[in-house]
Amino acid sequence: MKHWLTLATALALSGPVWAQEQAQPQTDAEAGKQVQVSGVKDPALRPYRIMTRGLDAFDKHHALAPKADLRFELWNADGTVARADGLGLRLAGDKFDQALAVDAEATFVLPRSQEAFEDNADLVLNRKKDQMAWRPRVRSPGVPDNARRLGDMRLECEVAWAVMKDQMSFMVRTALTAAGGMCRAPMTVLSYRAPKQLASVTLVSGERSRPLKLGKDPGTYIVPLRDKAWDDESLIVYQFAGDAAAPKEQGAAAP
Predict the structure, then answer these.
(1) Per residue in 190-231, pLDDT tens?
(2) CB 226 within 8 A of CB 249
(3) What pTM does this model have?
(4) 61 beta partners
(5) What are 111's strand-pairing partners?
(6) Shared-domain flag, residues 106 and 172
(7) Domain tally for the chain?
(8) Does residue 90 belong to any structural domain of this protein?
(9) Is 187 domain-assigned?
């Protein structure tokens, strides 16, 4: 029986659903002005100590995307686009308190902080935690806007697995761990979200190509992360609904 990990789960693996253009991050001072958590019930997203497992996983598996950095992106619990306006985020403990800049795409960098770790700080957002969620974001430079690099997606999966595995049931976590982890387990099917509604998705590496299965949601598709026949430089090329057919050579770099 396959264990489906889809956008409806709390595993934070779906792709970005907002604009592709990068915006300049806010300064810490600007982010701090937006953080108002008083009166918000259960504002903590995750404990910092657990989130650092994702930083460790990124360092351990960085060879999957050696030119990429790690950011985290915020999204609404129903899978819709998160608006950055009014979002405030900070690391907060009994003694430690640091505002984190949230950029125009609702993404942020999680810093390394021994002080936050020792103070058992939480990642705190000025929203109820059942309203918002997070997901890792890894983007190698040079990938077209209508494509994703397979190595980037594999690295995102490793980061998410490191942070979220303790939220799975004991049986599921044990089974996936024994199979090499969520990103490698043959019983796992991973569904990702594209930026827009899809007409088709193609996995491309050099002269080879393979259509990928779309999900029930017209913006989602199934990613074969564990298939070693496709290297990390493979591209997943989107054809969006309503767009003209993209040139075949556009996917020459892969997933």
Answers:
(1) 888 888 889 999 999 999 999 999 988 878 999 999 999 999
(2) no
(3) 0.78
(4) none
(5) none
(6) no
(7) 2
(8) yes
(9) yes
